[in-house]
């Protein structure tokens, strides 16, 4: 029943779309139906993504021609190491967020509309990751983005609408820059298939127009990924969304729509040059430092977590911009780790908001006595993001810093260590004021959160604790090593895709 | 006879609308069904079909148009169109590929040719038509709530 | 050549409108101008000298057509732009309901 060949690739898009439209059609009839459809769909896509990791290990790069039209005439969907890595990350976080929403979204008006938009956003993200065609990438990018604008405004209170409007306007401008870049690329190469574009670039040489296209793509996708100086929408949008959506936005959306596409275009299609790599290094370091400096003075818990997202994405871009194998390994591993612990942190803040109704750190105090599961998982996640051994954040930050020192960039290594220390200080503040101080009397009667929320938080915490295991020999070769190899191969992508189709 | 003048627009507009709304709807269906022969197809035809209902709403007022196509019916048509499109795409798996054109191709320039393309056009026209009408209704109903508060 | 430059000038006008105007509705119109400029640029890229419209008909010869691929892509991009604009207008109307103003310098509750 489960297709064990390249047929699996379109299912990543088709299954969430089917779930979303079924939900929209019959979701109002029975009360628990949206929950069941949402969770079953995300579980199915998670199983498919784990199978795809095994397929990549056995068969190498898989290419699927949609509709039987062979690329470069038709649309091709490509499954290689980096794709499988991102698919597992995205669908794992999506499954746990869907489980969390079973209880959390009772407080909002319409669970049916929530699950429809959520599955549409998931279909868009999977489509961006799995596709091998430039305009198809733009269409799925827009599907995921428009679904996320509606989800940020889901509560329709004053602050949420203002944040959603700012996010929507800035993100639309970013998408239009991307579309202009795609138009210029098409006018130069006369093809839309990514592998074919790489081949044309190898033959004709990257002309002068590639400079403008690179600038437009860095602006457009940098805005989606919230790199400094394009980060201004993130501190308003991520706190205003409902907590499971904040976890999805901060955990996977800015990575799959921003970082993954930047890697794919600049490593596999255009070809990385030292100029672009140093731009990545500079923007990454800037994001790291500015994010953490702006986060220190925050007292709103979710706004603090949003600023830390900017900082940690800076780490990922720094690692990828180094260009050495160790640097890319560190960057991609930190991408996976950040999805895990940042989602867990946002789900924690959602649990706190569910029980106490506030997000202000100065009003909370000593909540760990009444909410032990939330307190323990928050401790695990805070230690991970600060980089304390043996949690997973420590290993990835260590690899990035060692790679920076090995490449001779001592300045960047210094800033990385400094940002890590300031992150530790910031999360010490969160734990002291939020969870481990004296219990205030007004919180004397709150209760622990319901079952499904506890389940997803504990599962993510276990992944944070045992995340370092991904670096051990056998698992590393299957999962992270293949992703790193794809980026290191660079424009060999074209030859491999055409051989496989 | 004079009660009709209170909602919607003037008598001239209402008479002309009664004459032309059916023709606009038929023209939309023509563009959808000939999508594989002439320019147009699902999107453009769907927009024209939606505009015939919007025309009705502009000329006669909100209630008359909602009696023809209520909000629940628009939502139903929208989801049905999307599911039809997805089912056609998944049925391509029987031929071996997602979205394969698996029906007989027929002769060029005839109405019943080109495999699954007319069916896809019809599904898209359902979704786009119902979707644009639903967007318009949502914006108009929103305005009602704002005015009601003041 | 000058037609392409004029299209890019239209794009910059759209960016100026988004950056400088204070009314929310004018901001949305600025985004629409940018979308139109990019779609227009895409169609102009597809032009071939002495080409005719890329439509088959039973009696015409198949010589010298303009590139048909960007025409299909622009159709998709127009629909995406329509969906985004509809969502932005809906959010703007809800903002008016809550804040009672369309002036973006007064809609600044989130700061810090």
Keywords:
heterotrimer, A: 501 residues, mainly alpha, two-stranded antiparallel ribbon, 20 helices, 2 strands, 2% strand, B: 150 residues, elongated
Written account of the structure:
The complex is a heterotrimer of chains A (501), B (150) and C (112). Chain A is mostly helical and 501 residues long. Chain A is built from 20 helices and 2 strands. In chain A, strands 1-2 form a two-stranded antiparallel ribbon. Chain A is globular and about 70 Å long. The mean pLDDT of chain A is 87. In chain B, helix 1 runs antiparallel to helix 2 and helix 2 crosses helix 3. The relative contact order of chain B is 0.15. Chain C is an all-alpha fold. Chain C has one domain: Helix Hairpins (Orthogonal Bundle). Chain C is built from 3 helices and no strands. The N and C termini of chain C lie far apart (46 Å). Classes of the chains: A mainly alpha (501), B mainly alpha (150), C mainly alpha (112). At the A-B interface, helix 1 of A face helix 4 of B.
Outline:
With 150 residues, chain B is mainly alpha-helical.
Map the helices and strands:
The complex is a heterotrimer of chains A (501), B (150) and C (112).
Chain A: H1 11-26, H2 33-59, E1 62-65, E2 76-79, H3 81-104, H4 111-130, H5 134-152, H6 158-189, H7 194-204, H8 209-225, H9 234-240, H10 243-269, H11 274-296, H12 301-322, H13 325-356, H14 372-386, H15 392-406, H16 410-435, H17 451-465, H18 473-478, H19 480-489, H20 493-500
Antiparallel strand pairs in A: 1-2
Chain B: H1 11-33, H2 42-60, H3 62-68, H4 71-91, H5 117-149
Chain C: H1 2-20, H2 24-45, H3 69-99
Question: Helix content range of the residues of chain A, please?
Answer: over 70%
State the major sheet of chain A.
Answer: 2 strands, antiparallel
The percent of residues in helical segments of chain C reads 55-70%
Shape of chain A: globular
Largest inter-chain contact set: A-C, 35 and 33 residues
Shape of chain C: elongated
Q: How far is it from the N-terminal to the C-terminal residue of chain A, by CA? A: 24 Å
Q: What is the beta-strand fraction of chain C?
A: under 5%
Mean pLDDT of chain C: 88
The percentage of residues in β strands of chain A lies in under 5%
C-alpha-based Rg of chain A, rounded? 22 Å
Structural class of chain C, please? mainly alpha
